[in-house]
Specification:
The protein is α/β, with parallel strands linked by helices. The strands form 3 sheets. The chain has a 7-stranded mixed beta sheet with strand order 2-8-7-6-5-3-4, sandwiched between helices. A 4-stranded antiparallel beta sheet has the order 9-10-13-12, covered by helices on one side. Helix 1 packs antiparallel against helix 7. It is globular.
Length: about 375
């Protein structure tokens, strides 16, 4: 199998991740639920992972990181926990449904939402920010990079706007955590939502949320955390962590973060982009191939989405798998507004996304497959 679906979940994982999860099944108890070796081991690995995440994102301290099951849960915590009826929120048409659907839900509860438009290459029209601003605007919720086009958002420009108007900046880092440098303090990010199973190279079922000190988020869930059992309220991070955490998955995430520290995210990103560029340059001139996104800038993640003439994207994906054993993602990619902007609502798109574990030979095989399909179509 040639696996080119890393924007959905990275595969394979570093060997130390698998080893850490396996060992955790033999050692970990329930963090905070006792003082014996098994529960203390769980507490240590969870706290150690908080520390590594805080270091990666340049958080004030580890207590500002709470664990979630994935970025979707983190975004729901942020969106449902920060806004009230009458608030106004700005977002963009480039967002994943993990942002859009919680916002649709909040619209039903009386929150107003403005969706920034994008151009035909999927680039946010930043000049529309000031036009979108209202006296009751509370926040901007924005993706750091599109999972469909690979375009990276100009967070510095967004942050300048939120600073100017004293707004919250909530960032969906699903495609960039572990891929691009993120400094929540320098970039003035108030809430950062991330997942563990993509660029962080950890197991599925892991993720988290960074919340700047002074930002008060209502918990999405309430319940036991093993600490302060007689208190009616809790503080970060346990305020957002009701119930037993995924200790086994977090142990794998701890190992994955260690791998990223050892390898360096800059080196990994450079390799992934070299592979993506190799693929893009191999397919861009093939007759009948249409590619989406802005490839005039280096400010991208390693995603190339395309269509072949008027072929249904799902049919192309099946063709790639059945004839070439190449794994990609087709369809809407949970980004409906982005497809409407690109004019691909009915056709969808075929997404190739790359990992530093991929090889030049695999990329070349994918280029040949696209060429052959285009010639036969």
């Amino acid at each position: 199998m040639i696996y080119l679906d890393n924007a959905a979940t990275t595969f394979p994982k570093p060997p130390e991740v698998e080893q850490a999860v396996t060992e955790a099944f033999h050692t970990l108890g329930n963090a905070g639920r006792g003082a014996h070796a098994a529960t203390l081991d769980a507490s240590r690995i969870i706290y150690g992972t908080r520390e590594r995440l805080a270091e990666l994102f340049h958080a004030e301290d580890a207590s500002r990181i709470a664990f979630t099951c994935n970025v979707t849960e983190a975004l729901n915590i942020a969106i449902q926990g920060l806004f009230e009826p009458g608030d106004h929120v700005i977002t963009s048409v480039c967002e994943h449904n993990s942002v859009l659907r919680p916002l649709y839900l909040m619209e039903q509860r009386g929150v107003k939402v403005t969706y920034l438009p994008a151009d035909f290459k999927g680039r946010i029209l930043y000049d529309e920010l000031e036009h979108a601003y209202q006296s009751d605007t509370k926040a901007v919720v924005i993706t750091h990079a599109s999972n469909l086009t690979g375009n990276v958002t100009d967070l510095e420009r967004i942050a300048a706007f939120t600073e100017k108007h004293h707004l919250l900046l909530i960032v969906d880092a699903a495609q960039t955590a572990g891929v691009l440098p993120i400094d929540v303090q320098k970039q003035n990010i108030d809430v950062l939502c991330f997942t563990g199973h993509k660029g962080l190279l950890g197991p599925q079922g892991t993720g988290g949320i960074y919340v700047r000190k002074g930002v008060d988020v209502r918990p999405l869930l309430a319940g036991g955390t093993g600490v302060k059992s007689y208190s009616k309220t809790q503080e970060m991070p346990t305020a957002l962590e009701a119930g037993t955490l995924n200790g086994h998955g977090i142990a794998g995430l701890y190992a994955a973060l260690g791998y990223l520290q050892k390898m360096g995210i800059g080196m990994i990103y450079k390799r992934e982009m070299a592979l993506a560029d190799r693929f893009y340059n191999g397919v861009k001139d093939i007759s009948g191939v249409n590619i989406y996104g802005d490839f005039t800038t280096e400010n991208r993640v390693a995603v190339v989405s395309l269509n072949i003439r008027d072929l249904d994207s799902g049919s192309v994906s099946d063709w790639l798998w059945e004839d070439y054993e190449i794994a990609v993602r087709a369809g809407a990619h949970c980004a409906p507004m982005m497809h409407e902007t690109l004019g691909t609502k009915e056709q969808g798109a075929v997404r190739f996304s790359f990992s530093h574990f991929n090889t030049d030979e695999e990329v070349d095989a994918a280029v040949r497959a696209v060429r052959e399909i285009a010639e036969e179509a």
